[in-house]
């Protein structure tokens, strides 16, 4: 790693940092531009083909053959995540020179994690042997007209519970991200997220979710420097890596808020000592304010991919923080009765939003006004997007904007085009990849996110068809996949992507969505290939106790809808609201 201006303390310095792969090859350049109107030539983004990787067929996350790569930066020790062999050495963001804390080199007892080189899912010691009864009943009661995708859903939805979750004696939940025996703040909150609407009447599922929140509360309260921004932790509450990613704060806020509103249980927020959530979020807010630059944006040394940022202000992460500050404000007011901290949340939200408006936009000659991926306060911008979430593509999913927002629509057109240097096309499909997995690699996560942020039934069906091809016959989602040869992929056991796939099927095929404070709605997205969807679950979802759904048609526009035989009104955006606790719903759709 080379610090361009020779500064000795690059952590959150806002200085440009460049890194190289372990083989010495330079990381592919991204679209660095000046945030000023173009003059003569179009501001194109190109990616060099040099230094790209190749992965032999079947070379997935070979945990038994991989050893952690240990490096030292300014008194820190770190390990690479080991997602695939081609990524080279990944160096953690360095800590300050005066810090005494060091992350110990993690043990990696691969033989205990039953990870198969062939990509078959493994399980960690102490994991739940079976999924929650709620989740079992959900998968058993669902039928769609694509048997292949239905099988994938039935494997992906319980995957986190069956293979990655371990309940601990202290009442917490330790959740590994899959083939790595560490708990990422971002990944674990995302892995658990699809279960929250199902947990109202299930004490076991509630314990898993509440335990996840409590474990991260203790992580945030750790004496480790800047603990709320540390991305990953070991089973013994020590950091797995020292990489600093503020998006973890937003993920935990989102999970805690949705859990509390779904269940009415705020007991996680009223504990003391290491599990004092009020203190934990106070620390997070103080750190956000400390790392906020003159732009009003929060500095992010690492992307959600764990790679270095090129410029200090990562726009998607700032979007996610801004979108979740109102939720944290609500918790400060209604749980902790702390109006001063509630005002801090409001102030942070306003400053970040203003900073994105002033510094985060770029007038593109082809796409119009778009958001940049990263910026600094000197007019520089990095025009790209990465498959990892937060991402620009995910802005509506993160609740920062609506899918119809003009800037989002322009940005989406850019992201899903050849002008995004990490947009990859191939015989099996097209989608956004990542510099974290160099070469021709589509991330299924980006295709899932494309569907999650779309209301176009044809686009959603195209995404599902691509995901069917890119899973290489495993019925699981992977990290990076060669779209011309899906047998070449990284990470055969990637629980975050499996959970996100399940969330997409529930939200965008069945059209089942829970809106806290409003209720549960159904708006199926059907088409000639997916011409019916049936759901019969005598279990809770959101604020209701059970649903029986039959939907048929060839689009997303609802022609007629009944609940228990009676016609009901339809919200054009949300669909049919479930107003009865045990509802038999009939929906007929057509192409709009």
User: Mean pLDDT, rounded to whole units?
Assistant: 81
Low-confidence stretches: 1-30, 34-120
User: What structural class do the secondary elements suggest?
Assistant: alpha+beta
* DSSP summary: helix tally: 13
Shape: globular
The description of the largest β-sheet is:
6 strands, mixed
- β-strand percent reads 15-25%
Q: Based on DSSP secondary structure assignment, what is the total number of beta strands?
A: 26
Strand order of the largest sheet: 6-21-22-26-23-24
End-to-end distance: 52 Å
**Global Rg:** 23 Å
Question: What is the share of helical residues?
Answer: 25-40%
Task: List the main descriptive attributes of the protein structure presented here.
592 residues, alpha+beta, six-stranded mixed β-sheet, 13 helices, 26 strands, globular, disordered N terminus
Descriptive notes:
- By secondary structure, this protein is of the alpha+beta class.
- It is built from 13 helices and 26 strands.
- A 6-stranded mixed beta sheet has the order 6-21-22-26-23-24.
- α11 runs antiparallel to α12.
- The N and C termini lie far apart (52 Å).
Provide a concise account of the structure shown.
The protein has about 600 residues and is an alpha+beta fold. The protein contains 13 helices and 26 strands.
